[in-house]
Design a protein that fits this description.
The protein is α+β, with helices and mostly antiparallel strands. The protein has 2 domains: about 120 residues, no CATH class; about 110 residues, Immunoglobulin-like (Sandwich). About 35% of the residues lie in helices and about 25% in strands. Strands 5-4-7-8-1-2-3-6 form an 8-stranded antiparallel β-sheet. Strand 2 and strand 3 form a beta hairpin.
Length: about 230
């Protein structure tokens, strides 16, 4: 699932905040939030949007006979005396709020596209902690989330990705069968990086990150130390 699409991210965040995203889908969404700034932004947006929902609903003062008939129908043998309107107001405000949230939830569900393949999450581990401490300052680790259709990747550093001003980090796809790595471009050492490519999963066994000059590898192959590697096929 391509979480870089703004419309999809907004729909999933809306379901998450409303509580209609449940089970494994909700747990997967929560696990991906730390690596997806766009998803976190949409969650905050919907939380703020729904927080004031109840405040926008005007008070409703039903006729006394309405509550009396409800009590008589539900509890015909022990109908309570009619309560003052200020005691009944909270009930009607609550019902109006529930009805509004239910309507929004239904709209989100009707617009939600058919679920596609779940994303693939790969952790890129340090290849040689001793070497990385010498060249980049720490044993680097990254997490990559690849959409199920293999057309987008979000890479986020977890620990130890510090580099100098004369260095850059480059992401590589590792072809099956030990072929030459394919460059996917430069990535950030501190923030999330989104990579949009076709067939990110096709014919590949995983990903690697190398330390290169500021503009990237001048040869089309890794020239500096490969600091992290992650495989998604066993």
């Amino acid at each position: 699932m391509d979480y870089s699409r703004p419309l999809l991210a907004e729909r999933l965040a809306a379901e998450y905040v409303l509580g209609t995203l449940r089970g494994p889908a909700r747990r997967r969404f929560e696990a991906l939030l730390p690596a997806h700034p766009g998803l976190r932004h949409q969650v905050q947006h919907w939380e703020q949007r729904l927080h004031v929902l109840a405040a926008d609903i005007p008070p409703v003062n039903p006729r006394p006979v309405v509550w009396q008939r409800i009590q008589q129908r539900l509890f015909p043998a022990a109908a309570e005396p009619l309560r003052p309107w200020w005691q009944r107001l909270a009930l009607w405000q609550g019902l109006a709020t529930v009805a509004t949230v239910a309507a929004i939830s239904l709209g989100v569900l009707l617009q939600q596209p058919t679920p596609s393949q779940p994303p693939i999450v790969v952790v890129l581990q340090s290849t040689d902690p001793a070497l990385q401490k010498a060249s980049t300052g720490a044993a680097a680790q990254f997490v990559a989330s690849i959409s199920g259709d293999g057309q987008s990747l979000v890479l986020k550093p977890i620990a130890g990705a510090s580099i100098t001003a004369q260095q850059a980090l480059e992401l590589w796809a590792l072809p099956s069968g030990g072929g030459a790595p394919r460059s996917l471009g430069l990535v950030s050492a501190q923030d999330s990086t989104t990579v949009l490519r076709k067939a990110l999963l096709q014919g590949n066994d995983g990903f690697a990150i190398s330390v290169e000059p500021p503009g990237g590898s001048p040869t089309g192959a890794p020239t500096g130390p490969v600091i992290s590697v992650g495989k998604f096929r066993t």
